[in-house]
Amino acid sequence: MERCTYMHRYLVPWLRDHDDQHYGDVRRAYYAVAALIAARPRSARDTTPDQDMSMSWYERPNLGASLGQAVAKGVLKENSAESALHLMARQSSDAIHPGLPALVRQLLSGGIPIDWAVLLEDLAWWNRSRDRIATRWLESYFRTASTTNPALADSAEENDR
Question: Can you tell me the mean pLDDT for 104-112?
Answer without folding.
Answer: 95
